[in-house]
User: Fold this.
Amino acid sequence: MAPAVAAVTAARSSLINHGKKIIGVGKNYALHIKEMGGQAPKAPVLFLKPTTSYVFEGTPIRLHPKIGVVHHEVELALVIDKKARKVRPENAMQFVGGYALAIDLTARDIQEEAKKQGLPWTVAKGQDYFCPISNMLSKAQIPDPDDVGIWLRVNDEPRQRSNTKHMVHRTAFLVSYISHLFTLEPGDVILTGTPEGVGPIKAGDTVTAGIEGLMQMRFAVEVDRDV
Ligand code: MG
Assistant:
């Protein structure tokens, strides 16, 4: 990579590193809602993941040896680059500085139990290593975030392949909606929800995910020995 390009890439990724929050959107693809046996919500379902859950390429995903079932959820991520509070949908994309591909790892059995008991999803969604994410992509690389092919493979097995055009709530609406609840700040990331095909990962697997025609990223999955 030429030095100028490397500097731009580093600057973009450091924006993600300086973010204060990750806002996850749940139930945003009809076929994923169906595979989970849920109902389509009227308003977006939101949850938070701490930024300590980020893993960048080159670092493996490390899972606690007794964690149970962990599912992959490939998602388009929006990276905020300007403070946004109560913005209108028609202006919302001005506050998005770029994109990334992320995997919203989810401890599914913990989440199912939390749903049954009406408890928060924090432990199911927010653990260390639970947000593998790519380097930041520019807005020029993704001219229309509502029409992006995303996919995920575990080892050689295709698991998820869809397009953000199937999202229930589009990107501009999500940014606007969220900005009315939480002030968005530079580096904050919105995970826009996952399409169908979620499934388990385990130590020894290799997870590869990509954006059609643009990029791919790869993560090894290991047992976390530091327990
Ligand atoms: Mg998700």
Notes: The chain has one domain: 3-223. DSSP finds six helices and 16 strands in the chain.
